[in-house]
Design brief:
The chain has 541 residues and is mostly beta strands. 12% of the residues lie in helices and 39% in strands. The strands form ten sheets. The chain has a six-stranded mixed beta sheet with strand order 5-4-3-6-7-8, with helices on both faces. A four-stranded antiparallel beta sheet has the order 9-40-39-38, with no helix packed on it. Helix 3 (49-62) packs across helix 4. The chain is elongated. It starts with 12 loop residues before the first helix and ends with a strand.
Length: 541
């Protein structure tokens, strides 16, 4: 006769998490490169089916008898837990709906932020842990955009951190958990100051159609009186009312490619200058949008123009479908758009220039792997400093110290003499740099694709700190109300004190922020662009 299976002893889930999920040791490194005293890795627990099943059993015990009808999770850690809960609920006979919130929108296929269909039923969100609430905040704003609200959250371990407690109270969300840190004799380190700056949503403008293809810097908004203007991937250059977000006017750059208008407009004497991916540079009346002139200079223009008023010249990069001269820098007449000079290059010139007034130089990064200084009146080369890869955003100019500072695709932040191009120092990051650095308080602030904001002391020429930002930092920092303001590709906007380097403001958006943020002169309002051609207006309270 077959032997009867003996009844399995009850599982001690807490003891198992403590043994296999809680990690101690000096070999663990935090995102700030400082060693962790401990961490909890629930993925090691989820990979043991019997303990995953025990978590699911306790989940359904908490939500018995009927349980929630709609359950969602955040990638990546929440996926195995969400899947197991849905499967167990289905076997219990529950009518369930499941969905997953992505950290970043897919850039292909359906380009979804939410995988699965949402219904009108109450939502329970599940995740492995609750700490500061930052990842859950991303899910909250994504669901809010879809017109949905989180009813409750279920986590295995609730840290009950100060930030997390403030977050749940602020949004009135109940947290259900199986354990807290006290159950494992753990405690969070003394918390950093909670950001005090608060923001109030005013309006959102979404260009049609949304363009979630290229997660890169595009056309940065520029303020014109009580309006704010920028270009879109759909090749429309729009002017919005600053108070309402309604369109004042829209100008279509006909014949532009899929990228439309990535050029950030230059504003001078009531005129807006920008290029488009149809090879045309435009000059519009800034208040009416009426075309003043257009100049067909090449095949594509992704560069942003520099206005040099003392010479009446507009300096901009060009891109050609020519094997012998695929790119160049050109000088155009501000009044007519007539080409005054052209400096040929060996690659598409997406890079843009900044102006060094002391020696009358237009200094640009180039796809020829260099920092290049040209005479803006004649186009003659004055000096060139070679790098290992392209520089696609304008250098920052330090008038006080006579420096040009450029961030390169080779992962270096270069500091050179503006007069001669002589190298002063270079600082290595771990990925490409795609922004213009900010110079303030004797420091340089520059983002990198390695998910950090680099802070450099210009007097000592030393790296002060790498600030972990959780996602790629392509957004060029701006100084707003004395704070360093920037976004990341995870949709997080931050304000950082330039002296203490503490985060003083934090705001989560739905999509990635790759451009610089614009603001009113009094810093009361900020305008945050997303890479999918949306623009958000927030009041700084």
């Amino acid at each position: 006769m077959p032997r009867k299976k003996s009844k399995a002893p009850p599982l001690d889930l807490r003891a198992f998490i403590e043994k296999f999920g809680v990690q101690h040791g000096k070999d663990m490194v935090s995102p700030t490169a400082q060693p962790f005293a401990w961490l909890i890795d629930m993925r090691r627990v989820f990979m043991r089916p019997e303990y995953l099943a025990e978590i699911v059993r306790q989940f359904w015990d908490k939500f018995a008898p009927d349980g929630p009808a709609q359950i969602g999770g955040m990638e990546v850690a929440g996926i195995p837990l969400l899947t197991a809960i849905l499967q167990a609920g289905h076997e219990k006979g529950h009518e369930l709906n499941g969905f997953m919130v992505r950290k970043e929108r897919k850039t292909y296929g359906l380009q979804q932020l939410i995988e699965g269909e949402l219904t009108g039923r109450p939502i329970v969100l599940v995740d492995d842990m609750m700490n500061s609430g930052e990842s859950l905040e991303k899910a909250r704003v994504v669901l809010e955009r879809a017109g949905k609200k989180i009813s409750e959250i279920f986590v295995v371990v609730d840290f009950q951190s100060k930030k997390g407690m403030i977050w749940r109270k602020l949004h009135d969300i109940k947290i259900n958990s199986l354990f807290t840190l006290e159950d494992f004799d753990l405690a969070v380190t003394p918390p950093k100051p909670v950001p005090q700056q608060r923001f109030e949503f005013v309006w959102r403008y979404a260009a049609e159609p949304l363009a979630p293809f290229d997660v890169v810097p595009k056309s940065t908004p520029v303020i014109v009186g009580n309006s704010i203007c920028f270009g879109t991937d759909a090749a429309a250059f729009v002017s919005l009312d600053m108070d309402t977000g309604k369109e004042n006017w829209s100008y279509q750059a006909k014949g532009a490619m899929r990228k439309g208008i990535w050029s950030s407009a230059a504003l001078a004497k009531g005129r807006l200058y920008f290029g488009a991916y149809n090879g045309i540079v435009y000059c519009l009346d800034a208040h009416s949008g009426a075309e003043i002139w257009r100049s067909a200079v090449c095949d594509w223009v992704g560069s942003s123009p520099l206005v040099v008023e003392r010479h009446g010249v507009l300096v901009v990069g060009t891109e050609y479908e020519k094997p012998r001269m695929p790119g160049s820098m050109v000088g155009l007449s501000l009044e007519t758009g007539e080409k005054l000079w052209e400096f040929p290059m060996r690659a598409y010139q997406h890079g843009s220039a900044s102006y060094w007034p002391v020696d009358d130089l237009a200094i640009c990064g180039s796809a020829d792997h260099s920092i290049l200084a040209l005479n803006p009146l004649t186009g003659e080369k004055v000096w060139e400093f070679y790098t290992e890869r392209s520089i696609k955003y304008p250098p920052a100019i330090d008038l006080e110290r006579g420096l040009a500072i450029a961030a390169s695709f080779d992962g270096y932040i270069y500091v050179v003499k503006a007069k001669t191009g002589k190298l002063v120092e270079k600082f290595k990051t771990d990925d490409l740099c795609y922004s213009t650095p900010l110079i303030t308080h004797g420091r340089v602030f520059c983002g990198s694709g390695d998910r950090h904001l680099y802070v450099i002391d210009l007097e000592k020429m030393t790296l002060v700190k790498k600030i972990d930002c959780g996602a790629r930092v392509y957004s060029s920092p701006r100084l707003i109300d004395g704070k360093v303001a920037f976004g990341n590709t995870g949709g997080v906007y931050r304000e950082v004190d330039p002296i203490t380097l503490e985060v003083t403001g934090y705001l989560q958006l739905v999509d990635g922020i790759t451009n610089a943020v614009a603001h009113t002169a009094d810093a009361r309002r900020i305008f945050i662009p997303s890479y999918v051609n949306e623009l958000y207006c927030f009041e700084r309270l």
